[in-house]
Structure formats: structure tokens, C-alpha cells
Specification:
279 residues; alpha/beta; 2,3-Dihydroxybiphenyl 1,2-Dioxygenase, domain 1; 9-stranded mixed beta sheet; 5 helices; 19% helix; 38% strand
């Protein structure tokens, strides 16, 4: 069966204070906001968010952009062939005909074709490279969720993190040539873990860290280097406490790459120092 090719296009975030969250992403990432009914639509170069009222830390959806209509039809057929359900859906940044799929934990995914963005944000921060690249979930049953992403969504496992008993604690999955565009950690509760913006090169990690310092936004973890993906990174918190990662030089893999295995230890999460184990 054909594997899904897709890129993370935008996220839908809930917040008890949508305007405050939008103001944070304007300062941190240069995203320009506009009101569209009950939603705030935020956009800058290669990064888009839809913010609406709701519980802090709750992800409304993760929207992936497919390359063409044939890919969308292939995904529909895959989902139906596995006795799962897709429904028609809409989104601010996807063309008509998008679909919605819920995973076993209730996380909602949108898949569709992209459509032209609105007016480009202006300013050096808005045009600095930081492409929305991946989203990560925590789950009480990470193995079940990883299998869903593999078998039903058609993403390809790249690396797994295994504990001493051989149990899978983390799975990284890809839908492009990049190491992962989706991942799941074994955690004590089902939740959003983090989202990530790809800066591209090490010097831009420096520039983004300098920008955060200028905005008085402290780095919460990093700079460091992950084992799986081999990427450089640092993390911040937004005003709702969501983990936000800025990454650089994420590994590019070949289609026939074997699934890698990593030990469940701090050094896997950060080869340079402290690693934040999820469990």
C-alpha cells in the first residue's frame, strides 16, 4: 500500500485567553493575526496557527498538507480499508475537500490540499525561517497510537526508543524525507507534548535564541542535540504552558532506511546534557 506523503501545514490550538496567546506568537514568531468568526488566524513565513477559545494545552487539530488529489484519495482508501472512518472537514488553510480523522486517543487530524495564504506578514521576525515541521503527542498507550499512525495514516516509522524490557517508549514517524513529522511518547496521560518549528541551520538557532532573549522569553530546555533525528534544538513555553521547540538540521533519510532503535535514557533525548524523560 502506498505510504502517505504530507507536510504539517498548521495547528489548531485552544486557549482560555486566545488574544493573549496570539500576542505571544506575534512576539515570538512574528505571526500576524486576524479574527475569523470565533477563531484567530495567525500566519507568518511557513507557519500558521488557528487559535480558538477552550482549555489550555488542548490541541483542536493538526492539519497536514498533501501534494495532490491522488494522494488525498489514496489516504481515504487506506483509512476505509482498515475499517476506520474519515469525515469531510474544513480549515482556514486547506482547500475544499479536506478530511478529518481521529486517532484512538481522540486527537484530530486534518488532511487536504493547500491553498494560497493570505497577506504576508511583514518584518524581519515574520520572514525569518522557522517552518512548522512536526507535532508530538503523549499517550498512555503509545504503541497503539504508533501503530495507528503507521497502518491507518500511512506514516513511516523511522526510530523507536526502547526500555530495558524491550517495550517501545517513543516512536518517530515520517511523511516526507525528514526524520519525523509526527511522534508519540509513552506518558501517564493522553496529551499534546509539543510542536516544532524547523529553522534549518545552526546559526539560525543562535539567531532565534537571541530573539527570544530580546523578547524576555526564557529558554526552558537546550540548546542541545537529539539522538533520533540528530537535530539541534531548544524549547520555550508559550503563555498557556505549551512546549514549543525550535529545531535545526533535522536528519534527512532515504526511503528504504531501516527502523532504528535507541535506549530509553537521557542521552537519547539530549546527547549534550540533560534529557527530559516523559516517564
Amino acid at each position: 500500500m502506498i505510504r502517505t506523503r504530507a507536510e504539517l501545514d498548521h495547528l489548531g490550538l485552544c486557549s482560555p485567553t486566545p488574544a493573549s496567546l496570539a500576542a505571544f506568537y506575534a512576539r515570538a514568531f512574528g505571526m500576524v493575526g486576524k479574527q475569523d468568526g470565533d477563531e484567530l488566524i495567525l500566519e507568518a513565513k511557513d507557519r500558521r496557527l488557528v487559535v480558538s477559545s477552550g482549555e489550555a494545552g488542548k490541541l483542536r487539530f493538526a492539519a497536514y498538507r498533501l501534494p495532490d488529489l491522488a494522494a488525498l484519495e489514496a489516504l481515504k482508501e487506506r483509512v476505509v480499508s482498515q475499517d476506520w472512518i474519515w469525515r469531510e472537514s474544513t480549515s482556514a488553510f486547506l482547500a475544499e475537500g479536506a478530511i478529518s480523522i481521529h486517532d484512538p486517543d481522540g486527537n484530530r487530524f486534518l488532511f487536504g490540499l493547500g491553498r494560497p495564504s493570505g497577506a504576508a506578514a511583514e518584518g524581519s521576525v515574520a520572514n525569518r525561517t522557522a517552518r512548522l515541521q512536526h507535532v508530538v503527542f503523549g499517550s498512555r498507550n503509545a504503541a497503539r497510537l504508533a501503530r495507528f499512525y503507521d497502518v491507518i495514516l500511512g506514516f513511516t516509522p523511522t526510530d523507536e526508543v526502547l526500555d530495558d524490557q524491550g517495550n517501545v517508549r517513543t516512536t518517530f514517524l515520517r511523511s516526507s524525507d525528514e526524520h519525523h513529522s509526527l511522534a508519540v511518547f509513552q506518558t501517564s496521560q493522553d496529551r499534546l507534548d509539543h510542536c516544532c518549528y524547523e529553522a534549518g541551520t545552526w546559526d539560525l538557532i543562535r539567531d532565534w535564541a537571541d530573539h527570544m532573549a530580546g523578547e524576555r522569553i526564557p529558554l526552558k530546555w537546550g540548546p542541545g542535540r537529539h539522538g533520533p533525528g540528530n537535530n539541534l534544538f531548544f524549547f520555550i513555553h508559550d503563555t498557556d504552558g505549551n512546549w514549543v521547540e525550535i529545531s535545526a538540521e533535522l536528519e534527512v533519510v532515504k526511503p528504504d532506511r531501516a527502523v532504528g532503535a535507541w535506549p530509553h535514557e537521557e542521552r537519547t533525548l539530549n546527547r549534550w546534557g540533560i534529557g527530559l524523560l516523559r516517564s
